[in-house]
UniProtKB/TrEMBL annotation:
InterPro entries recorded: Gal_Oxase/kelch_b-propeller, Kelch-typ_b-propeller
UniProt keyword Secreted present: no
Keyword rRNA processing: no
Keyword vocabulary terms for this entry: Iron, Membrane, Repeat, Transmembrane, Transmembrane helix
SUPFAM superfamilies in alphabetical order: Galactose oxidase, central domain
The protein, known as: Galactose oxidase
Length: 426
C-alpha cells in the first residue's frame, strides 16, 4: 500500500499450464513489502522464495457499486439465494428464508434490470434458517434447516422437508420425504441431474446424505462418506461430482480434510488434507483453471474421470491474525495449493461468489461488520480492492452473479440494512 493508502500491484508474467486455465505469478503484500511467489505453492513445501525487486503501479478499485431499490427482503441471515437463469428461469434473483422479521415475506424475487421486487408465493414449508437451496435450471429447491423460533432459529427443531419453486408458473410444490433425518448447516449442490445433500447436524453430526432427482421426483440414499461426520463444511459440484472440505465436528474439532463423491458409481474417495482446518469457509468451483504448478503428481482417478477445474476456499473460523491465502484443491492431481492472499483481514460470515472469470469477496466480520472487499482475477493472478459500498458493512449477506453484476442481498449491519446493492465489474 502506498503512503496515500492506494493499493499497488506488481506486474507479473503469466505462466500457462497445459489445461484451459492460466496459472500466474502471484504477489503477496506482507509487512509493508511486496514479495514475488512464482506460481502456486504446494502444501508440504516451505513455499519460501527470495524476494525480488518488482515494478509497482497503482491499482484502481475494481468496478462500481449501485444501490438497489427498496424491497421486502429486510435484514436477514441464514437465508439462501440464487439467480433463476436459463430457459427455465425468469432471470430474477431470489432470496428465501433466514432470520427475517415476522412481518417480512419468507421469499422475494428481484428483477435487477428493471429495479423491481416482488414477493414469492407462500411455500408449503414453515419458516426456517440455515437450510440449503439450489437452482436446477427449472426449479429452486429448498431442503432442511432449523425451524425459526427466536433469534437465529434458537430453540427450533431440525427439519427434514423441502419444496420446489417453479418461477414460470410462480408456484411451489412439496418435495417427497427424504430418506435421511432432518438437519441444519448441511450442504446441497446441483450436479446437473441431481441435488445432493450431505453432512450437517441433526441427531448429532452427520456423515450421510441423499440425492434428489427432479425428473423422477424421487430421492435415493447415497453411501456414507469415509470421513468424520461434520457440519458447516464447504462443498461444491465440479463436473458433476461432489467435493466436500473442512467443517466442524464433535468437540468443536475443525477439519482440514475432505472427500470426493462420484454419483454415477455411488462411491467416495478421501482427499488429502489442506494445511489448516476451517468451518464456515466459502467455496467456489473454478471450471476454467487447474491449480497445477508443482505438487503431487498422483491423480485421483480411482473412480470416474478426472475433473478439469479447482475448488477454491477462503475465510471461515477460526479467524487468524496473519494474511489468509486462497486455497485451491485440484482433483485431477489430488493436491492443494496456496494462492495469493487477498488484501483483506481474515474473516467469517462474508459474501462470496464466482463470476465468469473472478472470485468476488465482500463484507463479513471479525469482531465487527466489515465493509471492504476484493476481486481476484484468476487469469491475471492479482487482486483488486472494491470501492467503498453505498450501504456500509454487512454480516451474513448472500452474493449471487447474474452474468453482468453481483447482487448482495440480505445480511445485518450497515446503513439501511434492509436494502440491497449491486457491484458491476469494469
Amino acid at each position: 500500500m502506498t503512503d496515500d493508502g492506494a493499493w499497488e500491484q506488481q506486474t507479473v508474467r503469466a505462466r500457462r499450464g497445459s489445461r484451459r486455465g492460466a496459472l500466474v505469478a502471484l504477489g503477496l503484500v506482507a509487512a509493508g513489502a511486496l514479495w514475488v511467489w512464482a506460481g502456486s505453492t504446494p502444501f508440504g513445501e516451505s513455499g519460501v522464495r527470495s524476494p525480488e525487486p518488482v515494478e509497482r503501479t497503482p491499482v484502481e478499485p475494481a468496478g462500481e457499486w449501485r444501490e438497489l431499490p427498496d424491497g421486502p427482503v429486510g435484514p436477514r441471515t441464514g437465508a439462501t439465494a440464487a439467480v433463476l437463469d436459463g430457459d427455465g428461469g425468469t432471470g430474477e434473483a431470489v432470496i428465501w428464508g433466514g432470520t427475517a422479521a415476522p412481518s417480512a415475506p419468507l421469499g422475494a424475487a428481484l428483477d435487477a434490470d428493471a429495479g423491481r421486487w416482488r414477493e414469492l408465493p407462500e411455500a408449503p414449508l414453515e419458516p426456517r434458517v440455515h437450510h440449503a437451496a439450489v437452482w436446477t435450471g427449472e426449479e429452486f429447491l429448498v431442503w432442511g434447516g432449523r425451524a425459526r423460533h427466536g433469534p437465529g432459529g434458537a430453540g427450533g427443531r431440525e427439519l427434514g422437508d423441502g419444496a420446489a419453486y417453479d418461477p414460470i408458473d410462480d408456484a411451489w410444490r412439496p418435495l417427497p420425504r427424504a430418506p435421511i433425518p432432518g438437519r441444519v448447516h448441511h450442504r446441497m449442490v446441483w450436479t446437473g441431474s441431481e441435488a445432493i445433500v450431505w453432512g450437517g447436524r441433526g441427531e448429532g453430526f452427520r456423515a450421510d446424505g441423499a440425492a434428489y432427482d427432479p425428473a423422477r421426483d424421487a430421492w435415493r440414499t447415497i453411501r456414507d462418506a469415509p470421513i468424520e461426520a461434520r457440519a458447516r463444511h464447504a462443498a461444491v459440484a465440479g463436473d458433476g461430482e461432489l467435493l466436500v472440505w473442512g467443517g466442524e465436528g464433535e468437540g468443536g474439532q475443525r477439519f482440514a480434510g475432505g472427500a470426493r463423491y462420484f454419483p454415477r458409481l455411488d462411491t467416495w474417495s478421501v482427499t488429502p488434507p489442506a494445511d489448516t482446518g476451517r468451518a464456515d469457509a466459502t467455496a467456489v468451483w473454478n471450471a476454467g483453471a487447474s491449480a497445477a504448478a508443482g505438487g503431487s503428481e498422483t491423480s485421483d482417478t480411482s473412480a470416474g474421470s478426472p475433473v478439469g477445474g479447482q475448488m477454491i476456499v477462503w475465510g471461515g473460523v477460526p479467524i487468524g491474525d496473519e494474511p489468509d491465502p486462497l486455497r485451491a484443491y485440484d482433483p485431477m492431481r489430488a493436491s492443494w495449493h496456496r494462492l495469493t492472499a487477498p488484501p483483506l483481514a481474515p474473516r467469517s460470515d462474508h459474501a462470496a461468489t464466482w463470476t465468469d472469470d473472478a472470485l468476488f469477496i465482500w463484507g463479513g466480520r471479525t469482531s465487527r461488520p466489515l465493509e471492504d472487499g476484493a476481486v481476484w482475477d484468476h487469469a491475471q493472478g492479482f487482486w483488486r480492492p472494491l470501492p467503498p459500498p453505498p450501504l456500509g458493512g454487512r454480516v451474513g449477506a448472500n452474493a449471487v452473479w447474474t452474468g453482468e453484476e453481483v447482487l448482495v442481498l440480505g445480511g445485518f449491519g450497515g446503513e439501511r440494512p434492509g436494502r440491497s446493492m449491486a457491484w458491476r465489474p469494469d
